[in-house]
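SEQUENCE-TO-STRUCTURE ENTRY
===========================
Question of interest: how does this chain fold, as expressed in backbone structure tokens?
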Amino acid sequence: MSASDLPDELWARILELGAASSALGFRDLCCLAIASRRLRRLSLHASLWSELLSRDFPFQSQSQPSSSSPSSSQQQQQLDPKSLYKTKFERHKARMAEARRRAVYDAEGRVLACRKRLTELEESVRAEGDRMKAAAQELDNLERVRRASVALNVWQPQVVHGRQKQLVQQCTVPVDSRLGDLNMELKVCKQQIATYKNAYNKEKQKLNEYEEALRRAKYHPIHNSSHTSPTINEPQAKRKRMK
């Protein structure tokens, strides 16, 4: 006895049990509808789509006929469970697409904000580096002035003595106190650069996570597979051209 010998009542009962046990979904019914005329007729039963409607959209109230007197075809379409399911599914699909777009926009906003923060940190590190270079250069000049002031107390040739004296006279700030300030400034710059670099590394890690989240939000199995399909069929096309 083959499956085609089963009566319609048994097939209808099988489909009802499948819909009630969540083993049969709307995609399965659509696939059955294109398998044969008999299964198409059985898959259009209102009880099946009513079961799917109450199962897949339990919190959405079914639309009721309006108080005005519409035509009989409009009333039938409004009360048809399959039409109701299709309408609710299209609305749900639109809401999911809108939620997906919002998720993509949010992920793109986080990525842009993170990149902006990285740019600001890079500029801060660059500014602190320039400040540290200037402090180091001034510290080197003051060290030469300090050595020159010490060398003035020792006998030297007149030419060397004159140069060192001129170097000391050109310095208008107290050397010892300024040296302490510059050493402290160098330490602060190094600490600040280390802080910026630490924040940069953490922000870079966040950027990688946000970019991965953006790729997941943009991923669509159908669209992505359609982009890769030409490369898969390319060798077959080449073989056909060679033949």
Notes: The chain has nine helices and no strands. Residues 3 and 52 are 24 Å apart (CA to CA). Confidence is low (pLDDT under 50) at residues 61-69, 226-234, 237-243.
